[in-house]
Amino acid sequence: MQWLRRGALKPKRCWGTTVQTKRDMRVIEFENVAYSYGGGELLSDISVKLAPGSFHFLTGPSGSGKTTLMKLCYGALLPTAGHVSLFGKDVRAMDRDDIAMIRRRVGVVHQDCQFLNHLPVAENIGLPLTVSGRHAETGGDDLQELLSWVGLSSRADALPPELSGGERQRAALARAVIMSPDVVLADEPTGNVDWEMSQRLLRLLVELNRMGKTVLIATHDLGLIRATKAQVQARVLRIANRRIQLAGADL
After folding, report:
1. Number of domains the chain is built from
2. Stated pTM of the model
């Protein structure tokens, strides 16, 4: 995992986005947040703060609002009540430049991951580097190592429609972390992979967290949560009855 070690010791220009400071005391903050859709309230009175370098899991039954809460965490949705602040700024007050900053500082692994079907896997994963003008600075070294780490080296030239569900998830995670964002939000990132690969992907997220990155993972997998808590200090947030609860140590 040399690319992570290089980033941990001396971040290269192609990986750095915005350096966290002590002023970023909360990267994500919800204050009495509610969200309604189609006349029904999905989330109610949510108050939670994610500090820089923290590791959280988000659990709850299907349909409880996990994906909705994740979307609120990066400004894809706006709350119908209460306040959501990202890096100290209320999402309602953000302009286009602020939103662009959020996109650089937050890496998102969607449950329904989308790719450009006419581009091979390697180019899809490296697209954030290309868009930011940083791909030429890396010589592709970090991209190739990341492809190897998520087990996609042999699929680098494949087109997205040729990938299995598990391969798409691995590609989505690689794309989300290629720019070494300050925050990684992952919605069921190991749902379609076997246990061995899920542990490999978990190690990637744990190493990013040890570098000071904030990680939030939505999952049903209690085994994954237990394996993580054996490696880093992770808190478990559970959505129940439209509200957030801090899960007990039995997890």
Report:
1. 1
2. 0.85
